[in-house]
Amino acid sequence: MNGLRKPLVLFVGIALASWMPRAVNGEIAWQSELRTAHAKAESEGKLLLLHFYTDNCVWCERLEQGAFQDPSLATAIERDFVAVKIHAGKSPSLAATFKVAKFPTDVIVTTQGEAILHRVPPQSSVDYITMLAQTVDQASSAGLVAQNPASGGAKTTPAVASRGAAGSSTSPTSSGDGKLAARHSVDRDAVARGTTATQVSMRTNPLAAPTDPRTATQSAISSQIAKPELAMDGICAVTVIEKDQCVEGKPEFGVIHLGQLYLFSDQRAMDQFVENPEPYTPVLNGIDVVRFFEERKIVKGNYQFGMKDPEHGRMFFFADEAALNHFYNQHTRYTDAAIAVMTKAIAEANPRR
Q1: Per-position DSSP letters for 125-178, written without gaps between them
Q2: Which H or E element spans position 53?
Q3: Beta pairing partners, 153
Q4: What is the mean pLDDT of the chain?
């Protein structure tokens, strides 16, 4: 993910932020763990401010000794944000998820995980406060937050957006720990009926023998196109990988791949997927890799329990939260082996390759 939800349950299970003492006496009230910060932000209708720093960082130290000592900055943060200070060296996966390469870096996200600011913060407290205010205004204008009259701060909007008759709705994909965002249910049959899809592969199961496109009958192909399974609840897989956002695909941009119907936000995204579907396809076609390798069982994963692995940025789906958390803690045991299986399956499935 920078970074995907939650369909999920946002920030389920894993506390990633390094321990930091709670600030008192007018100082910035840095939270000690991400789970707690998220719960607080959600209950208070605020945005999350993630401040990444590291050791031997001159500009990090200058912020600590300068702007962060200004009570007016602490007040501005407290009004609209819940702040978490994250040592990148102690939370490398979180830093990688948000593509933090410079220090210090501030990332502001909604409680649904949508990053709305990613930048090196200014050293001046006045400029810092201006940056925060502009971010709140930007988020409000984009419909990501709404003013909360009771608190005077920003109130984050729900993760689930209603699907309109025309156009698409967007919601975040990455929770900050690589987990994917929650999605509402859609009428899969209705979407499939309204889609004229391109067939880019004949194989429906990445672990089964591939169908030979030279011998496949047209009726079999038509049947597969007519009743495909809707992949990822209709979310555009390309925007998940490239932009860390959940954008609902449109029926006119449909592709059948490995027996599933993928929808895309626009022609460019669809063409990009058709050209090279592998980076955008859930590993093992959405099969729970933990159950597959540990129990030798083929169990369908759920987009609700999904995440992008930090090494490859590939999507993995799981049957439940327990499997997701197990993978999160031990993902290096599974990623390379699972991706190797998937790569072979896609190569065999795609008649153009």
Answers
A1: HHHHHHHHHHHHHHHHHTTSEEEETTTTEEEEPPS--PPPSSS--EEE---SSS
A2: strand 47-53
A3: 148
A4: 74
β 197-199/250-257 pair status: parallel
Dihedral-angle region of residue 333 (phi above 0 means left; psi in -120 to 50 means alpha; beta otherwise): alpha
Q: Any idea which residue has 């299986």 for tokens?
A: 341
Q: How far is 195 from 4, CA to CA, in rounded Å?
A: 26
CA dihedral 181, 187, 192, 194 (to 10 degrees): -110
Task: Of 134, 103, 113, 148, give the one whose Cα is nearest residue 37.
Answer: 113
User: In which residue are the tokens 């030798």 written?
Assistant: 296
Distance between start and end Cα atoms, the chain: 28
Of 70, 85, 80, the C-alpha closest to 132 is: 80
| pLDDT score at 202 | 52
Beta strands at 245-247 and 170-172: parallel, antiparallel or unpaired = antiparallel
DSSP summary character for residue 286: G
What token pair was written down for 32?
């000690």
pTM for this structure? 0.45
Give me the count of residues in the chain.
353
Q: How many C-beta atoms lie closer than 10 Å to residue 124's C-beta?
A: 14
SS3 (DSSP) at 118 = strand
Judging by DSSP bridges, how do beta strands 105-109 and 47-53 pair with one another? antiparallel
Residue-wise pLDDT for 98-123, tens only, equals 888 889 999 999 988 888 999 999 99
Cβ contacts of residue 105 below 8 Å, gap of 6+?
51, 52, 98, 118, 119, 120, 121
Question: Backbone phi, then psi, for 95, in 5-degree steps?
Answer: -60, -40
Distance (Å, whole) CA 109 – CA 330: 26
